[in-house]
Amino acid sequence: MDLDVEGIIHCIKQGDEDGLQIQLQEFNKEYAQCFFFDADEREKRKQKKLEEFKKNKVRDYADSDSDIDEFDQEDRGLILRQNLAVVLVRFIRTEVKCRLLKVALRSLRILSRDKKVLGPLVTDSALVTLAKLAGLTTGDDTDEPNDPDSDFYDNIIVSLAEVKARQGRTDEDEDDADVADLNMECPNFDEDAISNTNSGDLDSISWAGSHRTSINEMHRGGLHYKVLERGRKDRRESKIDGVEEEEEEGESAEEAQRKEAMKVLCNVVYNSTWAQERFSALRLMCGLTERLSSGVSCTSPSSVHFYELRLMFLVTALRPELSNQLRQEGGVSIFTAALESCLGVQWKDQYECVLDPAASPISLEDSQRIIEILKILFTITYSTHRQEPSEEDAALYRHLVAILRLCLMRKCVLPEDTDVLQGHTVNLLSALPLQCLDVLLMVPLTPDCKQCQGVNMDCVHILLMFMERRLDLGEKLKEKLTPILNLLTESCRANRETRSYIRKHILPPLRDVSHRPEEGSTVKNRLVRLMTHLDTDLKHCAADLIFVLCKENVRRFVKYTGYGNAAGLLATRGLLGGQGSYSQAQYSSDSDSDTEEYRQVKDRINPVTGRVEAEQPNPMEGMTEEEKEEEAKRLIMLFSKLSRENIIQPMSVDAEGKLVPMSLTQETKSESENDEEEEEGEMN
What we know:
Blueprint: H1 5-14, H2 17-30, H3 39-55, H4 65-91, H5 98-111, H6 124-133, H7 150-185, H8 202-205, H9 212-219, H10 253-271, H11 273-281, H12 284-295, H13 304-318, H14 320-328, H15 331-343, E1 347-349, E2 352-353, H16 364-381, H17 391-409, H18 415-431, E3 451-452, E4 455-456, H19 458-471, H20 477-494, H21 496-506, H22 523-530, H23 536-549, H24 554-561, H25 563-573, H26 596-601, E5 605-606, E6 611-612, H27 625-644, E7 651-653, E8 659-661, H28 662-683
Antiparallel strand pairs: 1-2, 3-4, 5-6, 7-8
Helix pairs in contact: 1-2, 1-4, 1-7, 2-5, 3-4, 4-5, 5-10, 6-10, 10-11, 10-13, 12-13, 13-14, 13-16, 15-16, 15-17, 16-18, 17-18, 18-20, 19-20, 20-21, 20-23, 22-23, 24-25
């Protein structure tokens, strides 16, 4: 679709609101689901032409003049979108009817997905204007006049005309030269089969005028963009492909306008570090915090509330100083109250919420808001995990953990939403001070609950089931698994009942040792496989959990995992010697009794592989003592050669149980002997 920026400008100048609305709606309809605009289509067309060239034996490589034409088409579209953004930012600062303003904001929201069009949207006046339309501020946003500025719009039209004229002249010149070259190289080639154009220097023909220099200076050296991928459709919107979005039931025109402005701000803040900095400098954070604080007590939050939460998450996640500021200003209390309101919490005791088994599942809208609140709470509390909280903070965190227990136990309308909700709950639990998590277990026992040694284990069981589901994932294992593995590890280290319950589930008594510990589909098998994963953090997290379940006892750890799988963690902690302790945790003194099946084959288990191996023939059988000595010398020479050529490096275990190069051990030993000789000489 050709974007008629000149037509839009003429409609604005002439006050033709109906014509302007029709043109903007066409643009919104065309690009409603588009993130890359025509980039995907350009790539498809380029690949199609390349295949045609190869088929006709005209080109046998990817670099073709058709690429230039495709880039030209995208460059022209980019120039038009940049100018449209300039025009619309100016337009929304005038007195605009609410319906038309919503359509213009929707166009800006689509444009704000393009990282190359953000320039006019990240100026202070544009940010303040959008914030005012979103309800974050009531102050004057600009000193610009309300009447359309003819000179401003005329300059845009003139710049577009210059671009067209320059491209037209370039096209004619390049056409003549390229066709002549093609006729000389390939006389029978049909010159109409390919279009030859040249865009020239994009910077010299891009959207010109009084605004361009200031915006380029603003971005120079300090602005970085993230590249958006084509994502799934927002389930909050009732959209049909190719059809304009309808207003939600009961949504006022003002509310729809605020929502569109908030979406534009979310896109701009996500894509531009400059916008993030200005968001802080313009003190828009205060207005956003006030909006969210006032919305806590509302029984039926507006549709804008979700996007206010999304903007708060983006700001606090991308700007750490704003996250700290929000925490110091009572952000934990504000969003704990918001979480409590979304869940409709009823309190049974100080740190116990009423859990009604017959309660209806969490609705789609509430689950979306709860997830955003959990993400915000994570950004403002993640640094408190290793800190010792004050008495007041500890009470606040325990109050929050009691609500998080409800998040773990409740179900959502959609199963995938339940999993996402539990995932963000786990992330937040792993960020809170460990001593405050005891609230998860401080629940009276019921006849149908999971228990261990008189302690309610319902939450622990849900966390175990969540970990099992994450173990089945084939992608993003590190991001999905490390939080739950760390949370379970720390919980086991801090609580004896939790460790005992999880150990029975993951490390039941050994009976069948005919297979390697990593072979099979049990939870233990899958965790042991992760202990040799390529990702260092992930394999250490998996090993830590099993190590803590073994009470950090090296012999027991090797028994359940095999020395080959355990060596990585043992080497990292300096426990290869089989002794020493890495943790100050106090474990109970219960013994790890072996099963009868294990005791019968214990002497035949290979400690490296952790299983009973088939007996192998003795390679030295039938050799004389001289032949054995010659074989030993040959092996020594081979190892020495590999060592000299740095193919292998012989290692040994030092006094601390850590792996060190053998050469260093020998040097240390020699120095020690020399020191002893010198001391003896001085004594004599």
